[in-house]
Design goal:
Layout (H helix, E strand, L loop, with lengths): L1 H15 L2 H25 L7 H26 L3 H7 L4 H31 L7 H25 L3 H17 L12 H7 L3 H9 L5 H27 L1
Helix pairs in contact: 1-5, 2-3, 2-5, 3-5, 3-6, 3-7, 3-9, 5-6, 6-9, 6-10, 9-10
Membrane topology: Multi-pass membrane protein
GO cellular component, one term: membrane
Protein name: ABC-2 type transporter transmembrane domain-containing protein
């Protein structure tokens, strides 16, 4: 238990001094929301119906895929890992506390979007708020674990940034949050379905059946957890 609290305390100190966390979890998503929210609702008034969901998908994807991997590289690729070992902290705890920290910050950012979008852009609240929150939590967990795969499997900082962008860009461009996915060629639609952003967007907008969207997210989560466990063992060596 002492090791757990030590890990949480160390993560808290890292969060306080992390500019990456501030940029990816708050500043960039909220700035994108402030600019693109006005553009979307002016050009396409019907965008008000899904503005909360689309901006949330962007913000969560940005914060997780761009922000989490560098934090994991900082832990497992530096002297921080030795600090963990010397204090009896399990190898997996760095991944857990980083993911938990990202979850808390991104959930807070999502709630800011949830309440401010109707206020500033007359966006519509989700029809079923409780179901929306559950969908958001699931989307957060899946996306953070996908980001964890990048941070644990790619040890070089520059390559980590490259892989983060390779996952982030198609997640946004092919998810349907910027324009209807039906406008894309079938091949790109299939590729887009390989990323959690598309299914998270479907789930939060209640497009299709609940299980129809949950099952793909569950499959992605299981695969991500498996790869994360391999990555943690790999970093022990």
């Amino acid at each position: 238990m002492n090791a757990f609290f030590y890990g949480v305390s160390l993560q808290w100190k890292m969060d306080i001094r992390s500019r990456t966390l501030l940029l990816t979890c708050y500043l960039v998503p909220l700035l994108f929301f402030a600019v693109m929210g006005g553009i979307f609702t002016s050009v396409m008034p019907e965008a008000k119906e899904t503005l909360i969901q689309s901006m949330t998908v962007f913000g969560v994807s940005m914060g997780a895929l761009i922000g989490v991997p560098p934090s994991l590289v900082e832990i497992y690729g530096s002297k921080i890992r030795q600090v963990y070992k010397s204090n009896g902290v399990p190898e997996w705890l760095g991944f857990f506390t980083t993911g938990l920290s990202a979850f808390v910050h991104l959930f807070c950012m999502s709630m800011i979007l949830f309440f401010s979008a109707p206020l500033f852009f007359d966006a519509e609240f989700p029809e079923h708020p409780a179901a929306y929150v559950v969908s958001l939590v699931l989307f957060l967990v899946v996306t953070i674990n996908v980001a964890g795969v990048i941070g644990l499997m790619v040890k070089d900082q520059s390559k980590t940034s490259m892989w983060s962008m390779l996952v982030f860009l198609p997640s946004i461009l092919l998810s349907g949050i910027l324009f209807p996915k039906e406008l894309l060629p079938n091949v790109l639609q299939v590729i887009g379905n390989a990323f959690p952003a598309a299914w998270g967007y479907y789930l939060m907008t209640e497009a299709g059946g609940w299980m129809e969207n949950v099952i793909p997210l569950a499959v992605i989560l299981v695969l991500a957890l498996l790869l994360c466990s391999i990555g943690i063992r790999w970093n022990k060596e």
